[in-house]
Amino acid sequence: MAHRASEGSRQAAYTLDEAAHIRQAICGRGSLVGCPRCGEVLRHTVGTDGLQTVWLLRCEACDRSVVIRDTPAAMAAR
User: Does position 1 have pLDDT exceeding 80, yes or no?
Assistant: First the structure.
């Protein structure tokens, strides 16, 4: 799910294609992921809601963010 840029920012949100690219990168290798717009490493926070792993990834340079959720079964299938 892509999120809007923060209030007052003139930057657009990540496109669905960009969000899908970020999701594939973070779920596929779980390592540092670069922003698809500027290449800066995305700052991330990882947690769980008990059923899914949840990542909040944010680009400090672009002021964009995205939330990625994935289930352990889906991750294991990769």
Answer: no
Is the residue at 11 inside a domain?
no
Query: 3-state class of 25 per DSSP?
Result: helix
Q: Which domain holds residue 27?
A: 16-76
Asked if residue 58 belongs to a domain, the reply is yes
SS3 26: helix
* Distance set, CA 1 to CA 9, 17, 23, 51, 59 (Å): 19, 11, 10, 17, 16
Contact 47, 36 (CB under 8 A): no
pLDDT digits (tens, 9 = 90+) for 2-59: 544 445 555 578 999 999 999 888 877 666 889 999 999 999 898 988 888 888 999 9
